[in-house]
Amino acid sequence: MSVVSAEGLVKLDADSTRDIRKDFHIVWKHVLYLLLHIGKAHFNIVCYDASGREIGSISDPIEVSELESLQPYFSGTCRLKRLITWLFRLCLTIIGILVVVGLLIGVVLLLRWIRISRIKATEKRLARVRDLVADIVRMLQQQIRENEANPEQPLYIPVCVLRERLRQQNMDVAELWSDVVRYVYDVETCISVQEWRGIGETWQWQGGTGWQGSALSDQSQRTPFMTPPTECLKIRNMFSTDGMDQRGKQRIKRELLKRLTSCGSILHIGLDSVGNKVGA
């Protein structure tokens, strides 16, 4: 409390008791002098100057600017109000912390749900693309069988025809067609892609009518043996390496490793640079 406010309160109390003196300012100066000497020791009152520095008995009373009680008195009502205010602030702090923690947990769970949803959507989309590629493989294999029955039938099918056939049976072909084409180019090495003048791009199945690639997802088609029947396995007429880049060769090796993983250790996979033979 400022010394001016303290002086005013004391003077107001003196006015109310009609005990005011003409020499009040001199008495107040003596009070300040007393507080400077014994105020801290006996009354727990500390004096400060205008700069906020604590002053003592060596200072003049006119230097006193602030008075502070080291043990302020609070009435029961005031103490109750202070307690209620403290509890209210404590509750607000706890609620704020809980809200912040809840928001952080909510954001983490939301991001996790978004990530899982995207992964599931991607897996579902990829599974659907594989199903469409499997349908294309069956069409190409059927075309091979028709060619065997009637040599006048071509071995290939134009891409536009394949797309139209799929569109008649599947409503999502238009949305997934770009992924289907990319899958055929990058993964399904058993489908030969060629360009014909007047026809456009055509796809042709390479090999027999059994499984010879990764398109068919039938899990029942497994290798009937657990150990390799010979130390060297050669696969012929599966695909052509003519014009195949290094990326295409790596795709073939990965596909073979995935399909023959239950047959035992594979020490080497080689592609014949001439013809269409693979040695494992």
UniProtKB/TrEMBL annotation:
GO cellular component, one term: nuclear inner membrane
UniProt key word Cytoplasm: no
Gene3D superfamilies: MAN1, winged-helix domain
UniProt subcellular location: Nucleus inner membrane
Transmembrane intervals: 86-111
Main location (coarse class): nucleus
Protein name (record): Inner nuclear membrane protein man1
Organism: Fasciolopsis buskii
